[in-house]
Every structure is written in C-alpha cells, then in structure tokens.
Amino acid sequence: MKKIILLQFIILFTLFGCKSQTINNTNVKSKSMTHKQPTLFKTINVDGINIAYREAGNPKNPTIVLLHGFPSSSHQYRKVLSQLSDDFHLIAPDYPSFGNSDFPLASEYEYTFDNIAKTIDAFLEKKKIGSYALMIQDYGAPVGFRIATAHPERVTAIINQNGNAYLEGLGDAWAGIRALWKDRNPETEKAILPSFSLDGLKWQYTHGTRNVETINPDTWHLDYLRLSRPNAHQVNMDLFYDYQNNLKLYPKWQQYLRDNQPPLLIVWGKNDEFFPESGAAAFKKDVKEIDYNIYDTGHFALEEDGDEIIEKIRIFMMKVGK
C-alpha cells in the first residue's frame, strides 16, 4: 500500500512539477525578453518639403526628439531607436537635404539654421507632438535650442551629446570655417572642401576614438554618397557660413537654460576637435543640476560608447518622468 501511495506521489510530482517548471521557465523567458518595437521609416510633407524621419516606440510613452548633426542624418541614432523603443517614443527627422528628406535647391529653400529649425518645429507641430525631450548633437544644438527657446513649456529635458552653446566650446577644427566667416571667397571655400571628401568624413567619425575598428565605416560612406549629389557642397558651405549666426544666439540660449533649468544629461566625447570638453563644462555655469558624463571618444560618441550612453539616457529619462 505504501509503495502504491509513493508511486502515485512520484507520478503527481512529475506531472505537476514539470508543468510548474515549464511555467516558471516561461515567466523567466518573458521577463528576460525585451519588448523593443521596430523602427519605422516614414515621410511627411512640411510646407512642400518631404521630411523623412525614423520613428519607434509607443506614442503614449514619453517622447524623445533626436536631432542629428553634420554630416549625418537620423541614421546616427539607429542604436537609440532600437534600444529605447520599449520605454520611450522616439522620433528622428532628417533636415532638408540631409538623409532621405527632399533636397530642394538653394533658390527654393533658404539653407540657414533659422529656417531648418522652423521646418523641424513645423514638423513637430504637424505630428502633434507637444511635449518632448530633445537629444542634440552638433547641428542638432542650434536647431534644438531654437525650438526650446520658442517653446520652453514643451521641453521636458535635454540630452546633450556634443551639442554646443558656448564660445569656449568651439575647438581648433573651426579655424577654416572662421576664415570663411571673415571673408567668404573661392579660396576660403576651397580650403574647406576636404571636409566633404571620403577621408575627411572618415576623420570626423574616427578621430579621437579609442579603437577605430569599432566604428562602422558605413557611416561615412553613406554621408559621402549624399554629399556627392549635385549642389550638396554649395548647400553645406552655406550652412557652414551661416553657423556664425548661432554664436550670436548663445546668450539667448544660455538665458533659456538659466530661466528654465531643464533636466540636462551630458554625454560628451571629450576628444572632439570641433566641440571639446570645455563646451560640456560650460553648461555648469547656467544649469544647477546636470547628469554629467564624459567619454574618452570623439565627435560621434554613440558610435563607440552607444550602449553605455543609451543606458544613461534610459535612467535619466526614468527620473525625469517621476
């Protein structure tokens, strides 16, 4: 009789124990599985220009607007879009003539930072995005700060990866462009042309990195392809020349920071020849509380330190949401 009871117990344990173990394994698996959402590649017409953009995540989640730099596009945020789409709504537009957006002629579109910011602001209006954090890098800073000063009530936070707003943040690599500002002529323009070459673009991605082999060469090859289109050099020369007008707005942007004290995350590549660490440190003058992080890498810090930076963004944005 005892043997029969023992046998029944073993059978029941085997059946229910295995089932329980299966359920537990399923639960563990479901917890460990990430619920990332795919990046969608979309286009919307803004004042007659088709603006291409990448979008990922649930629009009901907090929104982060990702503003790219030169010579890149929304492509530079591919890791952010992929890794943060579980918790955030991410949207990354390409400026006119950049990425997959339309490339109107200079006679049809004024290539200034004022006008690009106006286009991106209109893009956000058309998308009905009225509350967002801004992630800025390089050109993303003058675009983003124009939007922030126009709509301070909409900006929930700023994530800054080598996006400058201070005179002390302009590095040695600006020498050629400063000469262009002083006197724009065929000679000063010719001196800048190497920055549009394949080697010049590669330098922007690889200079200051710890290990060049970690940087995806598709980045500069893609940029080179776009900069090889007719009129691309002239349009970008116009933007180089117009950049001097950003410096005139630095006091206004700094006043915005002092008045509004937006939550600020600094994730800065310290070996950037355009925007060295002094540009990151300058924000301490105007923002009282900064999550300040400096990386031993170059201009496009996400390329080499993306995983760590993205985790910093996640933690920072979770705190902002509380």
Poorly predicted sequence stretches spanning 5 or more consecutive residues: 1-34
Element-by-element helix/strand order: HEEEHEHEHEHHHHHHEHEH
**How far apart lie the N and C ends?**
62 Å
Spell out the CATH superfamily of the domain at 40-171 and 245-320.
Alpha/Beta hydrolase fold, catalytic domain
**Assigned CATH architecture of the domain at 40-171 and 245-320:** 3-Layer(aba) Sandwich
Whole-angstrom Rg = 24 Å
- Beta-strand fraction estimate: 5-15%
Order the strands across the largest sheet as they lie in space: 1-2-4-3-5-6-7-8
User: How confident overall, as mean pLDDT?
Assistant: 91
* Continuous helix count: 12
Annotation, overall tally of beta strands: 8
Anisotropy-based shape: globular
Helix/strand structural class: alpha/beta
Instruction: Identify the CATH class of the domain at 40-171 and 245-320.
Output: Alpha Beta
Q: Give helix % range.
A: 40-55%
Which fold does the CATH topology of the domain at 40-171 and 245-320 refer to? Rossmann fold
Topology:
Elements lengths: L1 H31 L7 E7 L2 E8 L6 E5 L10 H7 L4 E5 L19 H14 L5 E5 L3 H11 L4 E6 L14 H8 L3 H7 L5 H9 L11 H10 L4 H11 L1 H17 L3 E6 L7 H6 L7 E6 L5 H20 L2
Parallel strand pairs: 3-4, 3-5, 5-6, 6-7, 7-8
Antiparallel strand pairs: 1-2, 2-4
Helix pairs in contact: 2-12, 3-4, 4-10, 5-6, 7-8
Can you give a write-up of this model?
With 322 residues, this protein is α/β, with parallel strands linked by helices. It has a domain at 40-171 and 245-320: Alpha/Beta hydrolase fold, catalytic domain (Rossmann fold, 3-Layer(aba) Sandwich), CATH 3.40.50.1820. Helix content is 47%, strand content 15%. The chain contains twelve helices and eight strands. Helix 11 (277-282) links the parallel strand 7 and strand 8. It is globular, with a radius of gyration of 24 Å.
